[in-house]
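User: Sequence recovery, please. Input:
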């Protein structure tokens, strides 16, 4: 249950930070900066709450997916992709952290998240 709470808390905090970033930066720059912030929030809050990192990331994706159901053009696809991608980022974080370091785990997930965001932005322009 702690993982779920901290995943939702990370989503709320990320929403606030992202809203601020959108006022300060272009959409493309936010797509580059936000993943690192989100991956840190999800992972550090999950660890702080002694929760499961992967489930914390899943909960974050679920919360983001709920937001997508309200705001996205392709609501159900966005909901599904939010859950799947954030869960995958959690698996990446945990796997790399177990073999190497927490810093490398978060960095690798953030890089994957950034690449994913850039792909989504490019597809949205079509």
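Assistant: Recovered sequence (126 residues):
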């Amino acid at each position: 249950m702690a993982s779920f709470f901290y995943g939702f808390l990370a989503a709320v905090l990320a929403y606030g930070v992202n809203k601020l970033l959108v006022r300060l930066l272009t959409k493309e720059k936010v797509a580059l900066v936000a993943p690192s912030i989100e991956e840190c929030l999800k992972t550090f809050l999950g660890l702080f709450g002694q929760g499961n990192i992967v489930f914390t990331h899943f909960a974050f994706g679920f919360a983001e997916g709920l937001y997508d159901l309200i705001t996205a053009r392709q609501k159900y696809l966005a909901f599904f992709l939010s859950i799947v991608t954030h869960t995958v980022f959690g698996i990446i974080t945990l796997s790399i952290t177990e073999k190497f370091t927490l810093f490398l785990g978060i960095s690798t997930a953030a890089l994957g998240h950034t690449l994913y965001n850039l792909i989504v932005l490019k597809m949205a322009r079509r």
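The chain has one domain: 2-124.
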